[in-house]
Amino acid sequence: MRAIQFSGDQRIELVHRPWPVVAPGEVLLRVRRTALCGSDGKLWRKGAAHTPGHEIFGLVDQPGHARHGQRCVVYIPVHCGQCAQCLAGQTHTCERESTLIGWNRDGGYGEALAVPEPCLLPVPEDIDDDLAPLLLDTIGTAAHALRLVRPLLRNLASMRVLITGAGPVGLGGLIALLDMGATNVSMADPRPQRCALAASLGARIHPVGERSQRFDLVLESSGNLAARDQGLEVVAAQGVMLWVGENDEPWTVHETKPVRRKDFFLVRSFYFPKSDHEANIALLRRHRASYERLVDRVFDMAEMGTEFARFMAGERIKPLMRGTA
Ligand SMILES: [Zn+2]
Ligand SMILES: [Zn+2]
């Protein structure tokens, strides 16, 4: 099959790979759309032996199987279904399995992949192919993080919120917050086009690095270390600093006076439990027009080299690679 290889030093090649081997308990999924993600940047720089791509939507192609022909997105944490975390519904933090599809085994930048059955999340017919991958990182990760801290937030309507980073997760967070009733959401991002999009979706624009105002909730989605430091400083007393972004560099916390002298919550959130899927579909349905605005390019696999570079340069929000299904 045709697949994308990340060869290291930002080199991307279209290669031929063997057809996926489907193990017992797995099905073959033919890729329809895989969304590009900023977190793939590290594989783009370092290279990867496997086929990357972790925001995957496709069609089950397993004749005779009960799910043959089903439209599904891929839930990337492989999970056992039996440990304490899985039994509590926390499938994203399984204690026995740590494999992530697209990270530790082949993902969606190819024509097809093998997927463990528990990692298939069905997509209803009224959700377009071009919106389906948003059910994962853009909607799932952002909405789960906000649901996690919801009990710590008293009055959302009057709360001051800052989102650092207007990428897909930050913008997904904005849409989810407005859905939850927030009315005062500011966003900071160094790229003017992203700020313009955020403003048109209902955010106020906050200067990058500005520290004089205080916020009851800070959603840090950029992974930028300075933004994390800023968040610790500008989160109001009794407020929540919600840490979602990712960064492989060590993060040194500077215990400045505005960080030390207050009560506040620092909450880390990762991906989402499978049980959120129905609520995420409902969220997508309520704000379909907003989510559609995040998908700014759909392209063929052969264009991946140029499209990935454009994406990493910040020229796109959520481009999708077209598979062959
Ligand atoms: Zn992602
Ligand atoms: Zn488990």
Structural overview:
- By secondary structure, this protein is an alpha/beta fold.
- It folds into two domains: 2-130 and 295-322, Medium-chain alcohol dehydrogenases, catalytic domain (Quinone Oxidoreductase, Chain A, domain 1); 139-268, 3-Layer(aba) Sandwich (Rossmann fold), CATH 3.40.50.720.
- The chain is 26% helix and 23% strand.
- It contains ten helices and 15 strands.
- It has helices at residues 41-46, 84-87, 137-149, 168-180, 192-201, 225-234, 257-260, 277-286, 288-292, 304-312, and strands at 2-8, 11-16, 26-35, 56-60, 71-74, 112-116, 120-122, 161-164, 185-188, 204-205, 215-220, 235-243, 265-268, 298-300, 320-322.
- Strands 3, 4, 5, 6, 7, 14 and 15 form a seven-stranded mixed beta sheet that branches. The chain has a six-stranded parallel beta sheet with strand order 10-9-8-11-12-13, sandwiched between helices.
- Helix 6 links the parallel strand 11 and strand 12 (235-243).
- The longest helix has 13 residues, at 137-149.
- The mean pLDDT is 97.
- Bound molecules: zinc ion (2 copies).
- One zinc ion binds at residues 79-80, 82-83, 85-86, 94-96.
